[in-house]
Amino acid sequence: MISIAANVTETAEQAAHKARDVGDRARYFASAMLAGAYIGIGEVLLLVAVSPFAAGHSPAVRLLEGAVFPVALTIVMFAGAQLFTSNVMVMLVGALSGRTGLRHLAVSWGLSLAGNLAGTLVFGAMVHASGVTSSGPARAMLAEMLHGKEALGGGQRRGLR
């Protein structure tokens, strides 16, 4: 088992690598756009694969959601794409440990957040234009997910589905 100190050291090394990558901002932004699209792929896969079970009120819906969505995170990891959520942790550890600076942290966070947003918007437009989620069960599940998110107040978001 890896110790906490070894884990922090490894995460700081990852931050140093990301700090070097951020030097090519266009490439970093494109990688972040792809990460946003990959997460979108997971959501579309979830809607298409799980919505028939949700429409049938199957008790296996949560299990299937848990089995399907991680595909998106696996794609992000294998592709080495820049996902904002991981950049927050990695770059903060790098900055706090002194391996990177605040400038690298800010640029990484800004590019990855903007890139993830752009990637999800472009991918979402393509999905909408294709009609792949236009089936009744998929639309109903999507509407239920959106309604659940809308109903949440500020602070920590729980029970998103």
UniProtKB/TrEMBL annotation:
What Gene3D superfamilies does its record include? Glycerol uptake facilitator protein
Would you say which domain of life the source belongs to?
Answer: Bacteria
Localization (cell): Membrane
**TM ranges:** 28-55, 67-93, 105-127
Return the protein name. Transporter
InterPro entries named in the record: Aquaporin-like (IPR023271), For/NO2_transpt (IPR000292)
Q: How does it sit in the membrane?
A: Multi-pass membrane protein
- Keyword Transmembrane helix carried by entry: yes
Q: Which organism is it from?
A: Streptomyces lasiicapitis
Q: What is the lineage of its organism?
A: Bacteria, Bacillati, Actinomycetota, Actinomycetes, Kitasatosporales
Q: Which UniProt keywords apply?
A: Membrane, Transmembrane, Transmembrane helix
